[in-house]
């Protein structure tokens, strides 16, 4: 068979080229683990040489799988495409999904209408599983998806679900380390720009801040806490509010790098030097932290690894054929010291 003949290569042609049976080719193409690596390589070489393209409709009928995975993100386009956290996690997800020859379907959800449309789409007839980022307490999709038996893995511990699979980081411990570092540097009035309180990550980082304040022998003073939404604009607004209410603030832990960079801008506008007048620590360790002026001390969370682990966990659940399986993975964080603190 040649490409110039006009005929599409068949499964049988791939098997003949690879020197294996038709069933072996089928197992390789469908991702079965019951094939040796040597055989898999030989079959995929034949697939590439012949230009074989699987009939996805027929494959779906046999395997009862669509080959598609939905990535649902409950945030605005501005934040998703503008903040390094989302870029890092999505990069990790696409790497693993691509290696598994799966199709990734991106769904951005903000309005009630978008939720309703997505609700009708997220079924076993359209996708094999769901990855969900940035879930808020009021989101109804997680419960609806679970009710259909679709495998779903969350980025972060989800609210209101007694059983769920997720990949998270040690938000509380990372925040505690950040604030302890500020106290250890001789700061006394340490403020906190908290993340949104309708998200567990925002609440966990606030808990870590409070734990570090109490561990230092001080009482938690809520006048030193201002809530943002993880965005740079909210960080700047929160910093201005803190300066107006507590002009004695001499350090700030922001629950995200974008909020820390917003705070840095507001401090500069107010004539406060960093770290001279106010020490500053963020949370993320995205690319902008290192090039900020001054470079930002921050809590490193492994964003690409989060995405890779989420996708790996979901693919394993899909391949097992056992439906939804509850798994949890919490990754460590690390304080990265730079000039801002």
Automatic annotation (TrEMBL):
CDD domains: HTH_LacI, PBP1_LacI_sugar_binding-like. It comes from the Bacteria. Signal peptide: none annotated. It holds the Pfam family Peripla_BP_3. GO terms for molecular function: DNA binding. Keywords: DNA-binding, Transcription, Transcription regulation. Residues 9-63 form the HTH lacI-type domain. SUPFAM superfamilies: lambda repressor-like DNA-binding domains, Periplasmic binding protein-like I. InterPro entries: HTH_LacI, LacI/GalR-like_sensor, Lambda_DNA-bd_dom_sf, Peripla_BP_I. PANTHER family: HTH-TYPE TRANSCRIPTIONAL REGULATOR GALS, LACI-RELATED TRANSCRIPTIONAL REPRESSOR. This is LacI family DNA-binding transcriptional regulator.
């Amino acid at each position: 068979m040649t490409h110039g003949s006009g005929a599409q290569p068949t499964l049988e042609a791939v098997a003949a080229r690879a020197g294996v049976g038709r069933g072996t080719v089928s197992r390789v193409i469908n991702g079965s683990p019951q094939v040796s690596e040597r055989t898999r390589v030989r079959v995929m070489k034949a697939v590439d040489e012949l230009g074989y393209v699987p009939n996805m409709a027929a494959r779906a009928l046999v395997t009862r799988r669509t080959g598609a995975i939905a990535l649902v993100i409950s945030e605005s386009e501005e934040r998703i495409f503008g903040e390094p956290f989302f870029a890092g996690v999505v990069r990790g997800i696409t790497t693993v999904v691509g290696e598994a020859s799966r199709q990734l379907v991106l769904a951005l959800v903000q309005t009630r209408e978008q939720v309703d449309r997505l609700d009708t789409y997220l079924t076993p007839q359209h996708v094999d599983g769901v990855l969900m980022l940035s879930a808020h307490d009021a989101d109804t999709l997680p419960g609806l998806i679970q009710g259909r038996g679709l495998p779903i893995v969350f980025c972060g511990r989800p609210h209101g679900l007694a059983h769920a699979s997720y990949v998270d980081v040690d938000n509380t411990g990372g925040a505690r380390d950040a604030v302890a570092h500020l106290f250890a540097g001789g700061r006394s009035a340490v403020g906190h720009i908290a993340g949104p309180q309708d998200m567990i990550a925002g609440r966990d980082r606030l808990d870590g801040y409070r734990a570090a304040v109490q561990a230092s022998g001080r009482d938690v003073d809520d006048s030193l806490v201002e809530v943002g939404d993880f965005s740079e604009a909210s960080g700047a607004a929160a910093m201005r509010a803190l300066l107006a209410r507590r002009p004695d603030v001499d350090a700030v832990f922001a629950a995200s790098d974008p909020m820390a960079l917003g705070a840095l801008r507001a401090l500069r506008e107010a004539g406060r030097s960093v770290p001279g007048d106010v020490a500053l620590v963020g949370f993320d360790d995205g690319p902008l932290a290192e090039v900020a002026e001054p470079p930002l001390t921050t809590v490193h969370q492994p964003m690409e690894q989060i995405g890779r682990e989420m996708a790996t966990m979901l693919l394993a659940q899909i391949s097992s054929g056992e439906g939804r399986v509850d798994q949890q993975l919490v990754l460590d964080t690390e304080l990265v010291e730079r000039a801002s603190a």
